[in-house]
Amino acid sequence: MRILGLCISLWFGSVLAACSPLPDSQAPSQNTAADHKPPRQVLIVYSGNTLGELKPCGCAKEEDQGGIERRMGYLNSVVPKESNLLLVDLGDNFKESTRQGRIKARYLMAAMSEMGYDAVTLGDRDLLYGNEFLKKQDSIPWLASNMELEGMNPPRTRIKTFDDGLRVAVLAVADPNLFYVSDHGGLTMQDPAEAVKHLLPEIERTEHPDLVLLLSHMEREKALKLLDLDGVDVVINGHIENESDQIDMQPVVRGHKIFMQAAPLGQKMGELRVLIDGGNKKIFQQRMVRLDSKIPDDKKMTALHDAYDQEIEALFFETLKAKRTKDRTQVYATESTCKTCHAAAHETWEGTRHAHAYATLKAVNKSFDPECLQCHTTGFEKPGGFISEIDTPELKNVQCEMCHGPRLDHSQAPQGGFAPEARQACSQCHVRKHSPNFNYKTYWPKIQH
């Protein structure tokens, strides 16, 4: 057995945790059936915390990761090579209760259905559009070990048996506090640890799993405690408050068990390879795979995203009709007026990327996307602000008043005192996924005026 364990370790290369063999007094007999089982392995691939990111916006090279096209491209390269593969998601796939957010959610669910997930955890954000929306996603393998949803009946456990006989039991629990704070209706939840303690004995008795995987949706420190539960081998956690959250993705090894967390915004896929020898000794190898431009886009997912773009464009023109009938009292002076008194500042502005922000949207066919327009135009979705390049061409780009606020009144009766507001305005658009290296002290000299 010791020789076999050494060979397995050398074969794996970079081993994070190898479970030590039992002492001789506890070791199974050399004549048991377990000793004659060949080594087997499973690759657990995990995602989570997507928050509706169907495709990275491309504003910053450092954050140009993720998206359904690359996720499927990655899976296309991995699935054919792995005979034992388990694909799971940790939840928080949705972001906000807007029409565009709901459309994104629908397309993301269609994408994940095509990807062939084995289990998907229900996060608190996943109830954003209600139980009825989730019920319609009947091709998604929802898993909920400690919750009951009115009108839904997701299984409490999932067992996957591979062709070589390897059996993996999967459970998924979530922190009730996350759900009750959000006031989700029709929901009953049990303490996560108690739910697992209740389910595991029956699973062990009837299914005899070789590996028990627990998916959790909660804060990291709470999830780490689940690693102490008897019978649990692997815990993978997911939960994100907002898109700028930093997530610790370093694995934690405790004894013969391992804990990991999913990456933010679906930017990386996690891989955990588990090798189990004939004596049920487990060896873990974990890594995170960046879904960057090196990953080829999947054509089917590209077509799906194109369909999403078409629907968002239709939504844009639908809302445009309503905006044209609303009160359009002018409150913005526009950059052409500002330059009459601030010629030097205007000249500096013209040389910055702010002055050409709208053109970058046109170049990638995103000039109809509300989520992009709010940071590439002046006053979009605000009274008197940008509507469209036909209706309000004078408000294209990131103009003076994006930082200094609507100043038509100032242009008519000049007075100072509003410059300090500009610094606070930067944080509205220069968030982590758009400007991961943003620092006011280093960025300000580029546009100083």
TrEMBL record:
<dbReference type="InterPro" id="IPR006179">
    <property type="entry name" value="5_nucleotidase/apyrase"/>
</dbReference>
<feature type="domain" description="Cytochrome c-552/4">
    <location>
        <begin position="337"/>
        <end position="405"/>
    </location>
</feature>
<dbReference type="Pfam" id="PF13435">
    <property type="entry name" value="Cytochrome_C554"/>
</dbReference>
<dbReference type="InterPro" id="IPR036280">
    <property type="entry name" value="Multihaem_cyt_sf"/>
</dbReference>
<protein>
    <submittedName>
        <fullName>MULTIHEME_CYTC domain-containing protein</fullName>
    </submittedName>
</protein>
<dbReference type="InterPro" id="IPR023155">
    <property type="entry name" value="Cyt_c-552/4"/>
</dbReference>
<dbReference type="InterPro" id="IPR029052">
    <property type="entry name" value="Metallo-depent_PP-like"/>
</dbReference>
<keyword id="KW-0732">Signal</keyword>
<feature type="signal peptide">
    <location>
        <begin position="1"/>
        <end position="17"/>
    </location>
</feature>
